[in-house]
Amino acid sequence: MATSCSHVLLWVRDLHQAVRDYRKLGFKVDYATAERKAQHAHIWFTEGPVVELLTTPRSARWFKWPIELMAGRGSGRRMIRWSESGEGFCDVAVVTDRHAFDRELTALRKAGVPVGRAIGWRRTKPDGQEIHFKFAYPANDRLPFIVSPYDPPQHPRESRHPNGATRLSRVRMGVRAEHREAARRIVGDDPTFVLEPGEMTGVRAIEITGLTADLDPALLHGAVVLPARPMADASHVHGSAGQ
């Protein structure tokens, strides 16, 4: 697939507390919608993947079947898993060109990777700007999901984080043996992903370029955030899930 990493999702119990904590860590964090009722916030870089902090209402489990009717088999289970797993990285998304979005979903299905229907979505930013995008969830709720680019584009021309962070450079992801081929098809050749054999499929850690100091684990809300290593140090891992 012609995809690249879009964003890594970090589930937190209290979004506002998490935003305060990540700002203490030296990240610039923007609410995705009006702050008072927000359930999403973003750590943007000038290019490349984004970190999305999100929370879900306590009543989310009651929406499992309506969500599956809307977005397809596995989607409700995926969203319930986000909160039931506790704080930490809960998912990751890949982005494909909006003109190729439906074609990429068809290619996945033909390759034997069941994917739910494409859902159009919109979000209103705190400044009133309306953002449009599409997403689709694989039936296997542990696999990365697929999104279209935000319309209009949202990467800032300049994003300066007080802690020196300049880019989310690597996503380290554990992959169960039976999920290897499907995971590879979804992430494609994007070198951002490092696929490692694991007992559970999911994001283990992210690496960020430019960090000038260690991050206090007590403020990370279960996330493992590491300073980026030279690409050569991890290149041998990027295919290891297939061995």
- Beta-strand share of residues: 25-35%
* Major β-sheet annotation: 8 strands, mixed
Q: Judging from the principal axes of the Cα atoms, what is the shape? A: globular
Strand-pairing-aware structural class: alpha/beta
Q: Helix count?
A: 6
The chain-level mean pLDDT equals: 89
Distance between the termini: 21 Å
Element pattern in H and E: EHEEEHHEHEEEEHEEEH
Give helix % range.
Answer: 10-25%
The stretches of 5 or more residues where confidence is low (pLDDT under 50) are: 234-243
DSSP E strands, number: 12
Strand order of the largest sheet: 2-3-4-1-5-8-7-6
Query: What gyration radius follows from the Cα positions, in whole Å?
Result: 17 Å
What would you say this structure looks like, in words?
By secondary structure, the protein is α/β, with parallel strands linked by helices. The chain has helices at residues 15-24, 64-71, 75-84, 101-110, 180-187, 231-234, and strands spanning 4-11, 30-31, 40-43, 50-54, 88-95, 119-124, 130-136, 145-147, 167-175, 193-197, 202-209, 225-227. It has an eight-stranded mixed beta sheet. Helix 5 links the parallel strand 9 (167-175) and strand 10.
Gist of the model:
The protein is α/β, with parallel strands linked by helices.
Topology:
Blueprint: E1 4-11, H1 15-24, E2 30-31, E3 40-43, E4 50-54, H2 64-71, H3 75-84, E5 88-95, H4 101-110, E6 119-124, E7 130-136, E8 145-147, E9 167-175, H5 180-187, E10 193-197, E11 202-209, E12 225-227, H6 231-234
Parallel strand pairs: 1-4, 5-8, 9-10, 11-12
Antiparallel strand pairs: 1-5, 2-3, 3-4, 6-7, 7-8, 9-11
Helix pairs in contact: 2-3
